[in-house]
Design brief:
The chain is mainly α. The protein has a single domain, classed as Up-down Bundle (Ferritin). 71% of the residues lie in helices and 0% in strands. The protein has five helices and no strands. α1 runs antiparallel to α3, α2 packs parallel to α5 and α3 runs antiparallel to α4. The C terminus is likely disordered. The structure holds hydroxy diiron-OXO moiety (OFO). Hydroxy diiron-OXO moiety binds next to α1, α2, α3 and α4. The site of hydroxy diiron-OXO moiety has 9 residues, from α1, α2, α3 and α4.
Amino acid sequence: MLSKKIEKLLQEQIEVESNSSYGYLAAASWCEVNGLEGAAAFFYNQSDEERIHMLKLFKYINEKGGHALVPVNKAPKADFKNIIDLIKYFHNSEKSVSSSVNKLVYVANHEQDYTTLNFLQWYVTEQHEEETLARLLLDKIKLIGMEANGLYLIDNEIAKHVNKKKPTAITMGGGEGG
Ligand code: OFO
């Protein structure tokens, strides 16, 4: 059984992951309409991954006797000044997700809920990887700069980080129906 407090925090984390998923979907769409195909593929993939993070929380809450609820999403940011602005947004978003995961870890530890603590370790590792990736991309694209063919190189650089192991709308190909 989950304590009321832990269930509430896990439910809030569902919202956080869902908002990330929609935020990255909006980012993917912005990239696509701005001719950045590599970055679009990357953010479609990120969006799918965040949805999976959300679903893991659904399963966990329900398995522990709680009731996971579908969250109401905030309208995601749809417009960006440029690709650097977008990657900054990605980095800030990951930092904020990490803080909410850390808060959950703190409370689970305090309540001696070791099952939840164990479950959360996966999120801790994931956040470390995603924050590192966001910072790496930000450093690299600042280094490349947007002059001359910079935007083309940036797009290729981001495309290298699409996680091809997991199926997404992009890697599955479009227009194949349900
Ligand atoms: Fe959910 O992995 Fe980052 O945000």
